[in-house]
Write a structure and sequence with these properties.
Length: 873
C-alpha cells in the first residue's frame, strides 16, 4: 500500500515503474515525451527498479536526460550495472511476463491461445470474403481472355505457317553455306598434302647436311656460353677495380682522421692553457671583492641598531624575519622587505634628510610583502612568538590584550585610522563669527607658544648637531650598502665564471691517452684496409689472366663457325628450286585456307553461332536431312520463296505491316499463359477455402468451449464478491447467431439496490463510484486466471463511499495475500480508520514537500529511540 497526500508524488511511482520498464508515455495519459516527466529545474532523472528473480535479483537502471536545447531527451539503460539498450530491457521485461501497456492483463496473459483463436476466427471471416471476391474477379478475367484468344486463333495459325516456310528457307541457306565451306575445306586439305610432299623432299636434302648443321649448333652453343663467361669476367674485373678505389679512399680517410685527431689535441691543449689563465684571474677578483663585501656588510647591522633605538618591537620583528625568511611557511620569501629604513638607499646623501622628514616614522618602520598570505603569517608569528601587541597594518591599528581571567585568551582590537580632513565645507556666517573669536584666543596662545618655541630651538641646537653627525654616519652606511650590492653582483658573476671554468676542466694526460688509443685504432683499420686491398688486387690479376685466355678461345670458335656456315650455304643453293616450289604452294595453301575460314565464318554467322561455339545437335540433325548438292539446295530455296510469297499475298494485314502479326502472336501466347495460370490459381484458392473452412469449424468448437469455461469461472468469482457487498453482479458472454466474431464480447451486469434490476454496466446508468466498485471487483476476479509478477492500481477508490471503499480494500487484501497471486501496489491518497491489515501487507508512506528533511539525513536510530522513550512515558 502506497499512501501520501494529494500532489506529493504518489503517481510519480506509477510513472517511474512504467518508464523504467521501457513502457511508453502514452500509457500514462499525462505527456507524450519522456522529457516532460523530468522534475522541473533538473536536467536528468534516474529510475532504478529491482525485479525479484533469485538468485540474484535483476536491477534495471534508466537515466533520462534533457537535451541542451530543451527540445528532446535521451535515455541510457543498464541491466545489473552493464550498459544496455531499451530494446533489450523491453525483451527482459517481456521474459518476466510483464506487460506495462496492458491495462487489464486478461486474455494476452491468461490463455493466449484463446485470444489467438479469436483473432484467427476474425481474420478468417474477413479473409473468406476477400478470397471469394478475388476468385470472382479472376473468373471474369479468365472468360475475357478465352474470348479474345478465340478471335486471334485463325490469324496466329496463318502466321505460324509463314514462320514455318521462313524457317525452312533459313535452314536451306544455312545448309548451302556449310556445303560451300566443306568444298573449300577439301580444296585446302588437297593443297596442304602437296605442300607436305615438298616439305619431305626438302627435308631429305637437308638431312644429307646434318653433320654440318650439328657442328654449327654445337659451336653456336659454345660461343654463347663462352661469351656469357667473358661478359661476367669483365663485370667482375670492373667490380674489383671499384673495390680497389674504395680501399684507397678508406685509407686516405683514415690518414685524414688521424691528422684531425692530432690537430684537435693541440687545439684543446691551447684552450686549456687559456682557460687556466682566465680561472686564476677570476679567482683573484672573486677573493678581492668578497673581502670588500665582508667589510661593507656591517651597514644593515648599523641601521638595525638605529632602528632598535626608535622601536624595540620593530627590531625584534626584523631580526625574527631575517632568521625565518627562508622557511617553508612563506610562499614568496624572496619578495619580503623590511623595515623600510634598513632597505632603502639614497643615491645622493645630501637629500637623505629630506627623504626622512618626508616619510613618516611609522612608514620607515614598516614591512613590505608581495603576497597577502605571507603578510598574515608574519603578523600571526610576531603576535604569538614575539608578544608584539601594538602595531599598524595598512589602514588599521592593531592592539592585542590577554585576558586576566579564565583561559587567558588573547583578544585583538582593530581600529581604522581616520582619513585626513580638508576644508571643503560651505561657509556659515554664524560659524565664522564663532571661529573668529576662537582664532583671536588661539593667536594669543600661539604667541605664548612661539616664545616657548624660541627657547626650545635654543635647547635643540646641540641635538641638531648630534643629528647631523648621525646623518653623516648614515650617509656612510648608505654608500657602503650600495657598494655591497654592486660587490654582490660582481661576486655572483665571478662565482659563475669559476664554476663554468671548473666544469670544463681539461685533463691533459687523459686526453693524451685517448689520442694514442684512437691513433692505434686507426692504424689497425689502415692495416685491415691494406690487407683487403692486397687480396682484391691478387684476385683482380687472376681474373684478367683468365679473361685473356677465354677471349682467345672465343676467336677460335668464331673462325670454325664461319667455316661450317660457308659449307651449309653452298648446300642451301642446291635446294633453291625445291624451296621456290614450296613457297608457291604455301601461298596457294594460305589462300585456300583463308577462303575456307571465310566460308566457315559466313556459315556460323548464318547459323547464328559464335566463332568458338559448335552447332547445336538439333540443328545438325535438321541439316543432315537436307541434300548436299548446291544445285539441288538452290532449287528448294526457290520453291520455299514461292510458297512464302503466296502466303503473304493472301493476307492483306501482313502486307500492310508484318509487325502486326508479331504483336498478335505475343498477345495470343500471353493470353494462353495467363489462362493456364488463372485456372491453376482459382482451383488452388477454392481448395484452400475448403481446407480453411474445415479447420475453422474445429477452431470454433474449441474456442467457444474455452471462452465459455473461462467466463463461467470469472462470473463465479464476480458473483461471490458482489454477494459480500449485498449486491448482484454477473459476467456474461455475448455471442452472435451469424458467427460474426467481431461482435462477441464480455459484459458486466450489476445491481446495487434491491429496487433496481440487473443492468449492463454503463456510464449513463451507474455512478462513478459504482463503476469503480464493479471495475475493481472485475479485476480482482481475474487474479486467479492471470499470470503476471505485479499489479498497480492508482486511486481506484476515488468516488466510492467509505463502506464500499473498506470492503474493496478487504477484497484486495484477501486476494493479494495469497502466495500464488501477483504482488499488488495499491496507491491511495487517504487511509480509512479501523481497517483490518494482514501481516503480508507493507505500507509505504511518501513524505515529500519543500520543508521536508532529505532522506539521506535521516537518523533511524534516533527516530526509534525517541518513539521508545515516548512509549514509556
Amino acid at each position: 500500500m502506497v499512501l501520501c497526500m494529494l500532489g506529493s508524488g504518489k503517481s510519480s511511482i506509477v510513472c517511474a515503474v512504467c518508464l523504467g520498464l521501457a513502457g511508453s508515455p502514452s500509457v500514462l495519459g499525462r505527456a507524450k515525451q519522456i522529457k516532460d516527466f523530468i522534475k522541473h529545474g533538473q536536467m536528468e532523472a534516474i529510475v532504478e527498479i529491482t525485479l525479484f528473480n533469485p538468485p540474484p535479483n535483476t536491477v534495471i537502471k534508466s537515466v533520462f536526460k534533457q537535451n541542451s536545447d530543451m527540445q528532446g531527451s535521451t535515455s541510457n539503460w543498464f541491466i545489473n550495472g552493464t550498459q544496455s539498450s531499451k530494446k533489450k530491457v523491453a525483451e527482459l521485461v517481456k521474459s518476466f511476463n510483464i506487460q506495462v501497456d496492458n491495462l487489464c492483463q486478461f486474455l494476452p496473459q491468461i490463455n493466449p491461445e484463446l485470444y489467438q483463436k479469436h483473432q484467427k476466427l476474425l481474420n478468417f471471416r474477413s479473409g473468406e470474403d476477400n478470397h471469394m471476391k478475388e476468385i470472382n474477379k479472376r473468373e471474369e478475367h479468365l472468360k475475357d481472355l478465352e474470348s479474345k484468344n478465340q478471335v486471334l486463333h485463325q490469324r496466329v495459325q496463318r502466321y505460324r505457317e509463314r514462320e514455318k516456310h521462313q524457317d525452312k528457307l533459313r535452314l536451306l541457306k544455312i545448309k548451302r553455306c556449310w556445303v560451300e565451306y566443306n568444298n573449300q575445306r577439301m580444296k585446302y586439305f588437297h593443297s596442304k598434302k602437296e605442300l607436305q610432299k615438298l616439305e619431305d623432299e626438302l627435308k631429305e636434302l637437308r638431312e644429307s647436311h646434318t653433320p654440318q648443321i650439328n657442328a654449327i649448333d654445337k659451336l653456336r652453343e659454345k660461343r654463347t656460353n663462352l661469351k656469357s663467361k667473358v661478359d661476367k669476367q669483365s663485370t667482375d674485373i670492373k667490380n674489383d677495380q671499384n673495390k680497389i678505389r674504395a680501399c684507397k679512399s678508406d685509407n686516405y680517410k683514415l690518414i685524414k682522421k688521424a691528422e684531425n685527431l692530432r690537430n684537435d689535441f693541440k687545439l684543446k691543449v691551447a684552450q686549456e692553457q687559456e682557460r687556466a689563465t682566465r680561472y686564476c684571474l677570476a679567482l683573484f677578483l672573486y677573493e678581492d671583492i668578497e673581502t670588500d663585501l665582508n667589510k661593507a656588510n656591517d651597514v644593515k647591522t648599523a641601521r638595525l641598531d638605529i632602528v632598535r633605538g626608535y622601536s624595540k618591537d620593530t627590531y625584534q620583528a626584523a631580526k625574527w624575519l631575517n632568521e625565518n625568511k627562508n622557511e617553508r611557511q612563506f610562499k614568496n620569501p624572496t619578495e619580503i622587505w623590511g623595515p623600510i629604513a634598513v632597505e632603502i638607499n639614497v643615491r645622493d646623501q645630501r637629500y637623505a634628510k629630506y627623504v626622512e622628514n618626508h616619510i613618516a616614522l611609522r612608514d620607515m618602520m614598516a614591512f613590505v610583502f608581495s603576497n597577502s598570505d605571507d603578510s598574515k603569517t608574519f603578523l600571526q608569528e610576531i603576535v604569538s612568538d614575539l608578544k608584539i601587541d601594538n602595531f599598524y597594518a595598512a589602514d588599521s591599528h592593531h592592539v592585542s590584550r590577554r585576558s586576566r581571567y579564565g583561559q587567558r585568551e588573547i583578544s585583538t582590537r582593530i581600529t581604522a585610522i581616520r582619513d585626513a580632513k580638508y576644508l571643503n565645507n560651505n561657509v556659515d556666517t554664524k560659524q565664522v563669527e564663532t571661529l573668529n573669536k576662537k582664532r583671536s584666543k588661539l593667536q594669543e596662545q600661539v604667541r605664548s607658544v612661539q616664545s616657548e618655541t624660541a627657547k626650545i630651538k635654543e635647547d635643540l641646537k646641540p641635538i641638531e648637531a648630534e643629528i647631523a653627525t648621525i646623518n653623516d654616519s648614515k650617509k656612510m652606511v648608505e654608500n657602503k650598502k650600495s657598494r655591497i650590492v654592486v660587490s654582490e653582483t660582481k661576486i655572483n658573476g665571478y662565482r659563475k665564471s669559476i664554476e663554468q671554468e671548473e666544469a670544463v676542466y681539461f685533463d691533459k694526460d687523459e686526453e693524451e691517452k685517448k689520442l694514442f688509443k684512437n691513433l692505434k685504432n686507426i692504424d689497425k683499420e689502415k692495416l685491415e684496409v691494406t690487407k683487403r686491398m692486397a687480396s682484391i688486387v691478387e684476385q683482380y690479376v687472376d681474373r684478367v689472366k683468365e679473361n685473356v685466355i677465354d677471349l682467345v678461345k672465343l676467336l677460335d670458335i668464331n673462325r670454325e663457325y664461319e667455316y661450317y656456315s660457308e659449307i651449309l650455304a653452298r648446300a642451301e643453293k642446291e635446294a633453291e628450286n625445291v624451296i621456290e616450289q614450296r613457297a608457291r604452294k604455301m601461298r596457294e595453301t594460305q589462300v585456300l585456307k583463308d577462303a575456307a575460314k571465310n566460308a566457315l565464318n559466313v556459315a556460323k554467322k548464318e547459323s547464328n553461332v559464335g566463332q568458338k561455339e559448335n552447332l547445336p545437335r538439333e540443328l545438325q540433325e535438321r541439316l543432315s536431312l537436307e541434300p548436299d548438292d548446291i544445285e539441288e539446295i538452290n532449287e528448294k530455296i526457290q520453291a520455299e520463296k514461292s510458297k512464302l510469297q503466296l502466303n503473304t499475298q493472301d493476307d492483306a494485314s501482313v502486307t500492310a505491316g508484318i509487325y502486326f502479326y508479331v504483336f498478335v502472336v505475343d498477345e495470343y501466347e500471353k493470353n494462353n499463359s495467363a489462362i493456364t495460370a488463372l485456372t491453376d490459381e482459382i482451383s488452388k484458392m477454392k481448395g484452400k477455402i475448403c481446407a480453411e473452412k474445415y479447420k475453422v469449424k474445429e477452431c470454433i468448437d474449441s474456442w467457444t468451449t474455452g471462452i465459455k469455461h473461462m467466463t463461467a469461472g470469472i462470473d463465479q468469482k464476480f458473483q461471490h464478491f458482489f454477494n459480500k457487498l449485498n449486491c448482484v453482479g454477473e459476467i456474461k458472454l455475448r455471442t452472435n447467431k451469424d458467427e460474426d466474431f467481431s461482435k462477441f464480447a464480455i459484459e458486466i451486469w450489476v445491481k446495487f439496490r434491491s429496487t433496481d434490476k440487473v443492468q449492463l454496466l454503463d456510464s449513463h446508468l451507474q455512478s462513478g463510484g459504482e463503476r469503480s466498485v464493479a471495475t475493481i471487483i472485475y479485476l480482482i476476479s481475474l487474479q486467479e486466471f492471470t499470470i503476471c509478477p505485479f499489479r498497480i492500481v492508482d486511486e481506484i477508490n476515488q468516488g466510492m463511499d467509505p463502506q464500499n471503499e473498506k470492503r474493496i480494500f478487504e477484497f484486495v487484501l484477501e486476494v493479494s495475500s495469497n502466495s500464488k497471486v501477483s504482488q499488488y501496489l495499491l496507491i491511495t491518497p487517504k487511509l480509512l480508520p479501523n481497517l483490518c491489515y494482514d501481516g503480508k501487507l507493507t505500507a509505504l508512506f511518501i513524505y515529500n514537500g519543500p520543508n521536508m528533511l532529505d532522506q539521506q539525513q535521516w537518523n533511524l536510530k534516533r527516530f526509534i529511540g525517541k518513539k521508545h522513550i515516548e512509549g514509556k512515558k
